[in-house]
Amino acid sequence: MNKKLILKQRPSGMPTADCWELLDEEIPQLTKGEILIETHYVSLDPAMRGWMNDVRSYIEPIAINDVMRAGTIGKVIETNGSSEFKVGDVLTGMGGVQKYVRSTGKGFFKVDTSLAPMIKYISILGMPGMTAYFGILDVGKIKEGDIVLVSGAAGAVGSIVGQIAKIKGCHVVGLAGGAEKCNYVKNELGFDACINYKEGSLYRSVKEFCPKGVDVYFDNVGGEILDVALASLRRHARVVICGAISQYNNSKIKGPDNYLSLLVNRASMEGMVVFDYADRYMEAGMQMGMWMMEGKLKTEEDVYDGIENFFPTFMRLFSGEKRGKLVLKIKMDE
Amino acid sequence: MNKKLILKQRPSGMPTADCWELLDEEIPQLTKGEILIETHYVSLDPAMRGWMNDVRSYIEPIAINDVMRAGTIGKVIETNGSSEFKVGDVLTGMGGVQKYVRSTGKGFFKVDTSLAPMIKYISILGMPGMTAYFGILDVGKIKEGDIVLVSGAAGAVGSIVGQIAKIKGCHVVGLAGGAEKCNYVKNELGFDACINYKEGSLYRSVKEFCPKGVDVYFDNVGGEILDVALASLRRHARVVICGAISQYNNSKIKGPDNYLSLLVNRASMEGMVVFDYADRYMEAGMQMGMWMMEGKLKTEEDVYDGIENFFPTFMRLFSGEKRGKLVLKIKMDE
């Protein structure tokens, strides 16, 4: 029997529990070439909120009654003559929030769990890590000495962005919500500073920690923080638009009123979608793997148990009650 | 005697006549090396509104009681042993709104009026032309076949932007206010189409004339038009932020709520300031001069008479009651 979470209705604003329904279904016979993957972990990402909206975007919206789309990692437990995969292979892909994934294997990639634990392949070696790597290097185009400001600094993407920028010789300032997260970002991840955006004047704090202004701002949040960052740009600065978690649950997105700072500072603001870099994931994975082995790059996963707990766990993305990569553990007996 | 317009107070919102005062003053003796330029024409540009605000920008604000800053062209009528310029030289620079400019010559450039009439050097061969040239080519990075959308298409910058894009083999759609301007843009300047943004649904009009979306949007206006353009971007589109005339008189600038279209479309938005390209003005001038001789590039100036009429003339920038480059004629006896 499979247990799958389907999208029952689209949220307007903050999602509620009744947007989804957990269903039991029998797993049908595999047809020729198909595989059955047992999901071990589901990746919970801010982007998932966007996929629930019925709007034109970089990917089709999740259809009503379809399995809730999500990145997953799991193990092949059955194949019907697949030429590509065999039983025991560990595969990552968009398996969705369900216990078993029946698939042709298309869109799934085999990973080597002798090199890194399974969970790392949906964290630093998965979407968040790839987003951070290509976002800060290819879009942000950081160079030694740059002053880099990163929002969501304790989060899955921001924590990696800042560490890569440190490796590249930048001065790195994070933004995170709360003293504990700021401590983690500064003392454990090694950022030069971390600003608690919930305290005091954000503009003055950025001014204090980036007195010369900001060369690269990596935005995961949008809203007021983006506006303050824009007001703090240096000449020829680059703003990487990776996400806007502060806006995803608003019925109307609020744009950055300080956008004319781009003109004043001859700066640019560029959006990115990680899937565009798929043919270079290997390169990024190898480089980040090396940095991890050298102890230069740390990652943390915040793991919650059980498909039944999808809703409260997912909501931690928006409440800020998590640190590092948010993961839902599906296979409970290991 | 000199007649000069000084900034008396800063406007809040739409400027009023009492922001300026017209003063008579005696012209003091030139000190060694100085020149005296008689102003023939003053260039009236949207950027001037920004210079009146007391905010950090790409240039110092105009100080209270200083001459109103403006681009000018005029003739040297006296020198006190200048090593650079002689009587009769025609110079362009930031002479300000006044009849006579006393100067060391710093920041002024000599132009050749046998190649083009004087007024062209503050129009297509001046700031608006240079802005258009570097904005669409260097920042917009247009290439053959691109779909280019230009706001302020009947204006000093937009009219040139669109014509350059046509020369480069793009499909060019303008945006202008009113049927007459749209006619001009389409039939006289040769844009493929021009949308009257005052009529009907702007989003639907852009959809109609750019059914595949927009590769490059050149923005002179900001506000709702920028938002519609963002909503119409194609993959890897570029948005050039050149100005935001719809916002300059607002006490609070309204940012583009559709900025996440940059993410969805992997697009970028970049600001520009023409002064950065000063060392390449010659290149642009020669190229545009050739296009003008070949009849591929047309420009028009909208000329009003008399320094006394500065205020009502300047306000035409914001009311839209002008076509092409807005110019104030200062020397009346020629």
Describe this protein's structure.
Two copies of one chain form a homodimer. With 334 residues, the first copy, chain A, is α/β, with parallel strands linked by helices. Chain A has two domains: 2-123 and 300-329, Medium-chain alcohol dehydrogenases, catalytic domain (Quinone Oxidoreductase, Chain A, domain 1, Alpha-Beta Complex); 127-275, Rossmann fold (3-Layer(aba) Sandwich). Chain A is built from nine helices and 15 strands. Chain A has helices spanning 47-51, 127-139, 156-167, 179-188, 202-209, 223-231, 261-264, 281-293, 310-319, and strands spanning 2-7, 20-25, 35-43, 72-79, 90-93, 100-103, 109-111, 147-150, 171-176, 193-196, 214-219, 233-241, 268-271, 301-305, 325-329. In chain A, helix 4 (179-188) links the parallel strand 9 and strand 10. In chain A, helix 2 packs across helix 3 and helix 2 (127-139) packs across helix 8 (281-293).
